[in-house]
Amino acid sequence: MAKAFKVAVLPGDGIGPEVMAEALRVLDAVETKYDVKFERTHANVGGAGIDNEGKALPETTINICKAADAILFGSVGGPKWETLPPDEQPERGALLPLRKIFGLYANLRPAIIFPSLTGASSLKEEVIAGGFNVLVVRELTGGIYFSQPKGIEGQGRDRIGIDTMKYSVPEIERITHVAFQAARKRSKKVCSIDKANVLSSSVLWREVVTGIGKEYPDVELTHMYVDNGAMQLVRWPKQFDVLLCENMFGDILSDEAAMLTGSLGMLPSASLAEGTFGMYEPSGGSAPDIAGQGIANPIAQILSAGMMLRYSFGLVEAADAIDKAVAKVLDQGYRTRDIYQKKDGEKLVNTSEMGKAIIAAL
Ligand SMILES: NC(=O)c1ccc[n+]([C@@H]2O[C@H](COP(=O)([O-])OP(=O)(O)OC[C@H]3O[C@@H](n4cnc5c(N)ncnc54)[C@H](O)[C@@H]3O)[C@@H](O)[C@H]2O)c1
Ligand SMILES: CC(C)[C@H](C(=O)O)[C@@H](O)C(=O)O
Ligand SMILES: [Mg+2]
């Protein structure tokens, strides 16, 4: 009998449902080819949760996720819900609680430049010639996103907005191990990003990372302040292998790294808990500027589904096949609008045509 895995499918808002449809078709194709079954249950999240069930993260959605082996997530948010109280909006009302409820502390965001896409990068060709492959390892359940106190206090012009950045030693230790273990399977270099010249949480971060680094003598460890890191990424991205970041620094640097590869629509992510449970989503958002037009790039969502097969289901062969199929269609010249450079040999396609091409290449 075919091996079966339960997937909670949360398409969300904006381009979320459009790119999710293509990732699900890719999963259909994997089922046929690899004798596996993905039992999918759809659930509302974000604006779709608010509109259909009155809440960004309805109980039914939480229960569907709890019953699943992994969550495949689209993206949430958009102008329609931006006037709600902050904690009820899609991002703070659904995405962040999901990360916390499921203990998804390790966010892996690989930024890989495909050889055929070097021209789509915002960097000069000579800087990225030969490609680069950076893995952002972002701490996802701590830091300034979650620490207390937080909120707006007082009245009128006397109000103050408060956010707090806290990290405990165990929180730093576990994400550091993830970074070093990932580096061991790659080019054996970890660059830890912090702001230890200003922030106390970063002073502790640097100390703990240095200590853990001694357990991995085969991996080179360097430290960099986040402002310099942001600059070095655009100056010479090839110097980096694994970038280890706290929550907010990782959020910012992963968008930057994504754009160096050509488009935010190319960058997948895996958010992992202890064990095999994970949530898989594009690093980018609901892209309200292009939603509803059928032109979004589905590659980040499809590669995220591939990461789900790799990290939560152990289906390495099928995951490799998805990665290769994406590289192949890019070599064949298929381009959604975000990565189209009007060069000879390029074929401008919409979301579903890109999905179909990837399935054909599987
Ligand atoms: N994980 C998530 O659900 C997530 C992540 C980031 C932002 N958001 C939310 O998304 C909404 C829009 O935020 P934003 O505009 O700052 O960021 P965004 O990532 O949605 O869009 C930034 C730019 O990248 C482009 N882009 C993103 N994904 C693309 C794709 N697949 N194909 C082609 N182009 C793509 C968009 O068109 C836009 O020009 C906000 O409500 C934000 O909070 C959600
Ligand atoms: C939408 C937002 C809460 C989210 C984050 O900041 O983590 C997004 O930007 C991301 O990168 O996944
Ligand atoms: Mg982000």
TrEMBL record:
It catalyses: (2R,3S)-3-isopropylmalate + NAD(+) = 4-methyl-2-oxopentanoate + CO2 + NADH. Substrate binds at residues 99, 109, 138, 227. It is an enzyme of class 1 (oxidoreductase). This is 3-isopropylmalate dehydrogenase. Its EC number is 1.1.1.85. The gene is leuB. NCBIfam families: leuB. NAD(+) binds at residues 78-91, 285-297. The keyword Nucleus does not apply. Keywords: Amino-acid biosynthesis, Branched-chain amino acid biosynthesis, Cytoplasm, Leucine biosynthesis, Magnesium, Manganese, Metal-binding, NAD, Oxidoreductase. The record marks 145, 195 as: Important for catalysis. Pathway: Amino-acid biosynthesis; L-leucine biosynthesis; L-leucine from 3-methyl-2-oxobutanoate: step 3/4. Catalyzes the oxidation of 3-carboxy-2-hydroxy-4-methylpentanoate (3-isopropylmalate) to 3-carboxy-4-methyl-2-oxopentanoate. The product decarboxylates to 4-methyl-2 oxopentanoate. Mg(2+) binds at residues 227, 251, 255. It is found in: Cytoplasm. One of its GO terms (molecular function) is magnesium ion binding. One of its GO terms (cellular component) is cytosol. GO terms for biological process: L-leucine biosynthetic process. Binds 1 Mg(2+) or Mn(2+) ion per subunit. Homodimer. Belongs to the isocitrate and isopropylmalate dehydrogenases family. LeuB type 1 subfamily. It comes from Geotalea daltonii (strain DSM 22248 / JCM 15807 / FRC-32) (Geobacter daltonii). The lineage of its organism: Bacteria, Pseudomonadati, Thermodesulfobacteriota, Desulfuromonadia, Geobacterales. Pfam families: Iso_dh (PF00180). Its cofactor is Mg(2+); Mn(2+). Residues 6-358 form the Isopropylmalate dehydrogenase-like domain.
